[in-house]
Specification:
317 residues, alpha/beta, Rossmann fold, seven-stranded parallel sheet, Gpn2
């Protein structure tokens, strides 16, 4: 089995910086890492990538040939990659023996909750190459300073979790800069644990621009609360301890920590629910999998609830 991460998130959330820093950290703890760049708009890579989608298709060429903008061009590129997934599979096969994979995806959020092409690429690779992947969804921590943007980030995180159907970790990135964005309305725990969102509604009511949408905001917050799936961990990519804690969490979600351990189901359960601080040197190379994914029925339920909330009802505004 081959383990890795699917790195996603809105533009500017720090995906490329994350892949660069994460690859360096994983190499320090003894893993061979291969970074796969699947963002055709990313033409200034700080890391050495093992596979680059630009060898298959270039965004600028697509935009010029088909008279498309950047967003349309990225959708076209993902469609093209889906139809040529055998190319990507052939590029990955030499890496499967001993590499840990980091997939750097584009930042256009519609690729991960409106279109199925990116998901289809991931699922085909999982099936054909027996990959065990965790989705790492980065959200810029400055969104916590704006209640409206924070609710938007929660909805995006929830819809992406349900759409991708992968073990999933939401991350507030650039946490070291959060104080520079201004004072938070609540303690950081409120934003990471996604606690009672009614308090957030009260904060929105104080904003003259957001107050007129308070009914709509309440309905959206109720959808998030009903599912109870979203929470965040924090990350400072330049802090080894912060990155290390995130790696331990990722290794639990995709099953990396269970490799090489000969134990009963009870012992596996103890490891799964135990603290994050396990010994890397005792279990240096892990080759098992603990499947954890949302189900299609959950995504359908979310779509129905969100459609109900966003239906043409002026009473919400």
């Amino acid at each position: 089995m081959v383990f890795g991460q699917v790195v996603i998130g809105p533009p500017g959330s720090g995906k490329t910086t994350y892949c660069n820093g994460m690859s360096q950290f994983l190499k320090l703890i003894g893993r061979k890492v291969a970074v796969i760049n699947l963002d055709p708009a990313n033409d200034a890579l700080p890391y050495e990538c093992a596979v680059n989608i630009e060898d298959l298709i270039k965004l600028n060429d697509v935009m010029m040939e088909h008279s498309l903008g950047p967003n349309g061009g990225l959708v076209y590129c993902m469609d093209y990659l889906e139809k040529n997934v055998d190319w990507l599979q052939a590029k990955l096969e030499p890496l499967l023996k001993d590499h840990y994979l980091l997939f750097d995806f584009p930042g256009q959020v519609e690729l991960f909750f409106l279109h199925s092409n990116a998901k289809s690429v991931i699922m085909k690779l999982i099936k054909k190459l027996n990959l065990r992947l965790t989705a790492v969804h980065l959200v810029d921590s400055h969104l916590c300073n704006d209640p409206g943007k924070y609710v938007s980030a929660l909805l995006l995180s929830l819809s992406t979790m349900l759409h991708l159907e992968l073990p999933h970790i939401n991350v507030l990135s650039k946490i070291d800069l959060i104080e520079s964005y201004g004072k938070l309305g609540f303690n950081l725990d409120f934003y990471t644990d996604v606690q009672d969102l009614s308090y957030l509604q009260n904060l929105l009511a104080q904003d003259r621009y957001s107050s007129k949408y308070r009914k709509l905001t309440k309905e959206l917050c109720d959808v998030i609360d009903d599912f109870g799936l979203v929470n965040f961990t924090t990350l400072d990519i330049q802090d080894k301890e912060s990155v290390g804690n995130l790696v331990k969490l990722i290794d639990k979600t995709n099953g990396y920590i269970f490799a090489g351990i000969e134990a009963s189901a009870v012992e596996f359960s103890k490891i799964a629910v135990g603290p994050l601080d396990w010994d890397y040197y005792r279990y240096p190379f892990i080759i098992s999998y603990l499947k954890c994914s949302a189900h299609n029925c959950l995504y359908f339920q979310f779509s129905q609830e969100l459609h109900h909330v966003l239906s043409f009802d002026r009473t919400l505004c």
